[in-house]
Amino acid sequence: ESARDDDRGLPLEVRLALDATPALADAALVIGLPEHAVEFDGVGRPSHNDLWALLRTPAQFVSLSVEAKARESLAELVEDWLENASKRSAKRARLAGLQALLGNPDTDVGHLRYQLLHRTVSALVEAARFRTGIAAMLVQSFNRKKDSQSWDDFCRFGEIMQAEVAEGRFVRAEVTTSVPLYLGWVSCEPADRDRLRAAV
Predict the structure, then answer these.
(1) Hey, what's the torsion of the CAs at 42, 45, 47, 50, to 10 degrees?
(2) Whole-angstrom distance, CA of residue 129 vs CA of residue 96
(3) Mean pLDDT, to the nearest integer, of 181-194?
(4) Of 28, 40, 141, 197, which one has the fewest beta carbons inside 10 Å?
């Protein structure tokens, strides 16, 4: 909200991270949808993105899903999420579908945070729906010190996705996905009262 008067409509930290990646440089916000729910072929509950955004670069559109964190984990590990799942449970089918879209169908992902998988797939699903040329998933941390565990989890996810992730920028995942996929992390300061008041 505080960036709405900016010609690109993006927070400074996000803008700098995008500009650090040539394929995403000069991206501008077209539309942003808070708490955007993305369905995955009717299997399981939808993925609720803290924010989903359609961006426009000089060359193409970008589907961006955002997961905001502030002193909280990236939810449960996949192995814990699957624990005690019955043979009739849809969880295994859902996980197989997510992994297929992420380009690693035969990889052991039990040690990864389930939230990272379905949040990233959100970007890919919406890329197909809106016919964007790129998909991207961003973790936006509002307490970097307290989010150190989430950073470690994000790095493990990057390894599986064949992306050498780096703070403050987006990095392309080298797995095969429907469109080029980028993973990013930015650390931001929470808005103070004056900034919140000015944005309303």
Answers:
(1) 140
(2) 21
(3) 86
(4) 197
